[in-house]
Amino acid sequence: xxxxxxxxxxxxxxxxxxxxxxxxxxxxxxxxxxxxxxxxxxxxxxxxxxxxxxxxxxxxxxxxxxxxxxxxxxxxxxxxxxxxxxxxxxxxxxxxxxxxxxxxxxxxxxxxxxxxxxxxxxxxxxxxxxxxxxxxxxxxxxxxxxxxxxxxxxxx
Length: 156
Known about the structure:
Strand content: under 5%
CATH architecture: Alpha Horseshoe
Largest sheet: none
Shape: globular
Low-confidence stretches: none
Helix content: over 70%
CATH class: Mainly Alpha
């Protein structure tokens, strides 16, 4: 299952979305059909991969649905692991669908999450997305929060 997640991530990075989809759907099928490996970390990894795949493929409503399901799972299981990705990709999908209040709320929660924890590699990954950079400078986002975030991660 882990191999399929890695493959999906690599395919997503290189823009090979058909192969990314095959890999993430196979990983999801394994999680759904095998209770022995359905621990929090595996479920979160699969759902984040699905969330990012849907976003990158332009299926923003599916991305929102997957993201909200993942967020509820993370809350119910008290697992905050990689929750910043959940918040940011939800924000990106909401932004693309012009659901701006939801986009602002999720984006700011993602920023707060990264202010509480120190995750420079996550910030590096997120900064590679144009929508992240756009939203970071968007007037709808709390400017004091953005200033603290940029200061912490040495972003200009």
